[in-house]
């Protein structure tokens, strides 16, 4: 980081933001294989929270790769950077008083732990969407498993890249 920049804090405290939003912000982090149902659950949760008058926003893995993380590939290192960036944005949303709902494969334990550290353990709720690989392949609405099995897609979680199942999700 450059020494020419500094953090500018707000005059509005976190507690004041919580009072204004009438909620305690947190991040709900959905993790699981492609096709497990993470995005479906994340957007359904967002709808429910908003219907109950809570400010919430979904950071979906596919969506962030259209802009914020567009230049990243799917190698292990790029996946780590993708998760780090999303965690930083989730933290900013939390600091603004919103509930962040993150839906990312996030296959590695270490990366999920880093996300938890960035966001803050007291604001991080990990949800493992535990859907079998066979069921995810059956769903395969994007055709990604078929491409990976045919060798046309590399570093695909569940086929040629591992998914580390959370040990103790919330």
Automatic annotation (TrEMBL):
Residues 24-170 form the APS kinase domain. InterPro entries: APS (IPR002891), APS_kinase_dom (IPR059117), P-loop_NTPase (IPR027417). Pathway: Sulfur metabolism; hydrogen sulfide biosynthesis; sulfite from sulfate: step 2/3. One of its GO terms (molecular function) is ATP binding. It is an enzyme of class 2 (transferase). GO terms for biological process: hydrogen sulfide biosynthetic process; sulfate assimilation. PANTHER family: ADENYLYL-SULFATE KINASE 1, CHLOROPLASTIC (PTHR11055:SF63), BIFUNCTIONAL 3'-PHOSPHOADENOSINE 5'-PHOSPHOSULFATE SYNTHASE (PTHR11055). Catalyzes the synthesis of activated sulfate. Belongs to the APS kinase family. This is Adenylyl-sulfate kinase. It comes from Pseudomonas pohangensis.
